């Protein structure tokens, strides 16, 4: 079964009840399960959690006239900023600073994320967030890694995420979800667990995307966004536990999500928000296929769209995948683009997304 079909089945199970099975363990024999269990125990021992807690990044960011934009951040330790050097260097802080720069207004950040949270914890977080800010302008959710490491039923995890998105949308918030990162890119995780973790996390990310789009939100594929950077300079991109992002890693993740949040709030008017640019790899298709393609292309935004005036086709909801962030262009290709042949492959959107917000 392909990833697109698995994503559809997981999302359907999430919508109509029932489960799809834990994160793939059932497909393993008893011997394989034993190996995975040992590998997971060793990985936890290597990674550890040498932090007292995440920094408190709540507060006002930027400057400008008018009432501040209200930004909520929900999710797990990544959303909370565990591993950041200071409160000003979390993903939420970078997003708030970037939003303020685009809006010309202050942004009030309210972060209710919980270290160690699974998707099931989003219900309480949404209640807490809306108690504090009844009418938020935008909400960003980063969730999924703990669902994979704790082998939570993917359909159950996706169901909780979809409910959270709908509740936030009902409150008037634009919702952007950073989908489950590719845990196969974390080097302390040994083989064969790393290969399985990659499949589990990518399958969950694709199913999350389907559910988020159906619930009225936008998703951004984080995938192995930090993988190549981790391989080149792990001391810079990852925190001392070799698992959570460092301040530089959070800046990178926030830069991937900032364009989507800006477009959702109407702060970044661009044709590509509704029209795909085929030269840079944008796609339009059934949401399951678009979600599957986005998993393999970190930095891709997926949102609902219409085809010939219709929201749905024979294979479900139509969705557009926008390649807002791509790998750095090799020097030789960049020189060729200077002559005009490859300029369209870079694009102003991708260039802006590579910048660190609030810097």
TrEMBL record:
Provide the transmembrane region boundaries.
13-36
- This chain's protein is named Lysophospholipase L1-like esterase
The record's keywords, sorted A to Z, are: Membrane, Transmembrane, Transmembrane helix
Q: Which InterPro entries match?
A: Ester_Hydrolysis_Enzymes (IPR051532), SGNH_hydro (IPR013830), SGNH_hydro_sf (IPR036514)
Native organism is Lapillicoccus jejuensis
GO MF terms listed in the record are:
phosphatidylcholine lysophospholipase activity
Q: Which residues form the SGNH hydrolase-type esterase domain?
A: 73-252
Q: Does the keyword Transmembrane helix apply?
A: yes
Per the record, a Pfam family?
Lipase_GDSL_2
